[in-house]
Protein 1
Amino acid sequence: MLFEGANSLQYADENQLKDLVRTLDTEVSAIQEITVTKVVIRLDDSTEQIAESLLLQVVSDNNEMMTVGTLNPIPDEEELILSLAESPSILSYLKDSGTTWVLDLNIAEDYMDEMVVEGKLTVNVEYIPNKN
Amino acid sequence: MKLKLFLGFIALSFFSLSYAGGGDEDKLVGVWQPSDGRSYVKIDKIGNKFYGRVVWLKEPNDEDGNPRVDTNNPDEALRSTPLKGYRILKDFIYNEKEGIWEDGTIYDPKNGTTYNCKIVLTEDNQIEVRGYVGTAVFGRTDVWTRLVKKK
């Protein structure tokens, strides 16, 4: 259950960089930079009706929490596109342990269930191509 | 060396924050009121660090009746972020030896400035929050009180 006002959702995943590396058929050391270019958040109908604002941040064991994007107010649309911070670079977070994405969500009234929110990042990956 | 550019996607699936603590370091978790009485700040633990968000404001709206936002943020793209819910305390790590929470920052929305910060628990329901620039000698300490349920 979530109470009216400021709430936080989180998602921990330490395999995101490995997944990108596998897609590129390369090594972690070949990745030079990863920059977020777009963040889309999808709220279900019941959440969308009470959500007032969104703020996406990322943190890891050896990196300070960084703001990636924000949205306020929330438009009446299925796909919510966040306004991005200046060139959010996330490579050091994905390389680190304890990578956790934090979605701060202000809601207008109590929410009586477990809340689950889906999101998708579009990223630019700069890498050294495999010579083979 | 020629770099290649790849457009990739990362899926995220967020869940409600669950928390179960109990050690000395977790005594910081709770809702606190700064000395000016104009806000409440809820401190949570995320991973192995502590973070605090504004969960109540005495004056949540501006002169025009709109929710107050972070108008002084140095990053222009983030100035629409509401102050209610703003995470003003970030990245505190518990120093078990000294019994303090350190290496964190505190953000002052009045001037858009982020200061280094450390927190000391002086009583069960009282903390000293010291913001400073450079060394902790040059800074300001505020006393915050924990909000507790009346019995």
Protein 2
Amino acid sequence: MHELSIALSIIEVAEEEIVKLGATGVTSIHLRIGALSGVGKRSLSSAFGLARENTACATADLVFEDVPVIAYCPRCREPRPISSIQQFNCAVCDSPVSDVVQGRELQVIAMEVT
Amino acid sequence: MIASQPRLAIVRHNVLKNNDVLARELRERFRQADVSVVSLVSSPGSGKTAFLERTLSALRSQYRVAAVVGDLATHNDAVRLARSQARVKQITTDTVCHLDAKMVDAALEDWDLNDLDFLFIENVGNLVCPSSYDLGEGLRVVLLSVTEGEDKPLKYPTIFNTADLAVITKIDLAQAVEFDLATANHSIQAVRPGMPVIQVSAKTGEGMDRWLEELYSFRRNR
């Protein structure tokens, strides 16, 4: 439900970047979205479809890059993927892992501008 | 006029940067004023307000306490919490399903943080949206009531994973609703290995000592 707030934040970011880049418009906004970001892609896309109207992003689409969860495994002494989002165990040795090093991201990484 | 060619510009910008920057500022202000800030998140109806009311009453004899409480509408929770004689402020979010750092900042505007030892932030009842927003708190507590089902943590792993402490509420009703504590603990540990879990009843007071001990230790270790 907070995807509308997130969509508005994305537009704010994009508008700031358009000015910085000296561009006139944007056709796509590329996002990195972590599995633990708390944001759903489908609801974000539909919220963005509403929020973009009458903004500099009116014709822009969102392009997603999924970021899986990586946590530090104390037994392997390595950052490792986890078994699943419902099971925070090292995917390699099955030990419980609690230090998340990746997966909370919600970033604009690139924009196709005109 | 020549139409400009599309080009791909590389940018790196956290979408919630503004919130994160403000949350960091708040955290620094809390540190300087030596106030311990605890946020509470849960689904609607899990007993956050009753739990907080009892907490404020228990702390008030020894500490200077205050609470900021978020809701979509009504001031009912603030009225209930004010019975504890603590300072309370309601944030009415209208349609927004979570608190953000800006709302907390605005709510604190006319309070002197140096007058406080503990500040509680009760988030809007919601297990999804609050997980994305840092509020500058030092301790994030997630509540789960026995009437909600033991697998709730598996359904909402993000919010449980971002919490520091889990509190199982309404434990006085556990038997009536055939709540399986071991299964609930297992679900919590699956999504947040090592997170401490305590069981309380705001009605009977069961487990409140253990919870207060957690708060004292959080303040001691600040």
